[in-house]
Amino acid sequence: MPSKRYLSILSVCLFTLFVPSLCLHSSCKNNEYENNTIYIVLLLPKDNRFLASHNKVRPVIQLSIERIHQMNLLPGWKFNYVFVDTGCDVDYGIWAAIKSYVEKPVHLFLGPFCDYITAPVARLAKFFKIPLLTPAALADDFTSREKRSNSSEYHMLVKPGWSFSDMAKALEKLFQRYGWHKLLFVYDMNGREEMAKHDYCMLAIKALHDTFFAKTNCTLNQKKLKKSQSHEDLLRNEVGDDYA
């Protein structure tokens, strides 16, 4: 069950994003749609193997909307939200965003959850003039680039929460605190498949590498974890005393 603090933060984020985008889409003028309704499209995978599938996210959205009403943030407004399956696939994710924009009014995109879909959809959202709120976008590129300018690549992307860059900065502080100077990246190219279909661990390692690469007094090495290799063998032969 999400914490009250988390729901309050999410509710305020939703409120802040809704207001500027109301009725920017031409479909809002269509009598088929209600003028006092906020339309949300959730671009998420339907497959429950993923951490943020439709069934897992739906209760959080419902609780957040209830909290908005309880806090009286948008008196008189109703919410209409629809889930669209991205399959955590780039092609389907882009098509889902475009199809939703063309066929119905959209005031807010929630998601996508997978980084490789978030990037192209966030670029489209800039031209749609529709905010895109996602807990994903963990890759370093999403946080290292300026987003306040209208010309920014990810101008409409809003990303609450942590990122791989934050993880790298935290690890950097540990290295500084304890005087460590050697770092070995051990990762599985297809690890954490519940988070993304491809390269989740690789994106995390990239953020760490970019942070530590500038450190002239830090030695970096990397090792891809092989399916046929046991963790014990890896620790004995690859890590050993050198990184103990």
Automatic annotation (TrEMBL):
GO biological process, one term: signal transduction
Protein name: Receptor ligand binding region domain-containing protein
Gene Ontology CC annotation, any one: membrane
Signal sequence interval, chain numbering: 1-23
UniProt-listed PANTHER family: ATRIAL NATRIURETIC PEPTIDE RECEPTOR 3 ISOFORM X1 (PTHR44755:SF11), NATRIURETIC PEPTIDE RECEPTOR 3-RELATED (PTHR44755)
Transmembrane segments: none
SUPFAM superfamilies noted in UniProt: Periplasmic binding protein-like I (SSF53822)
Origin species: Araneus ventricosus
Alphabetical list of InterPro entries matching this protein: ANF_lig-bd_rcpt, ANP_Clearance_Receptor, Peripla_BP_I
Record's subcellular location: Membrane
Domain Receptor ligand binding region residues, every copy: 57-235
GO MF: peptide hormone binding; signaling receptor activity
Protein keywords: Membrane, Signal, Transmembrane, Transmembrane helix
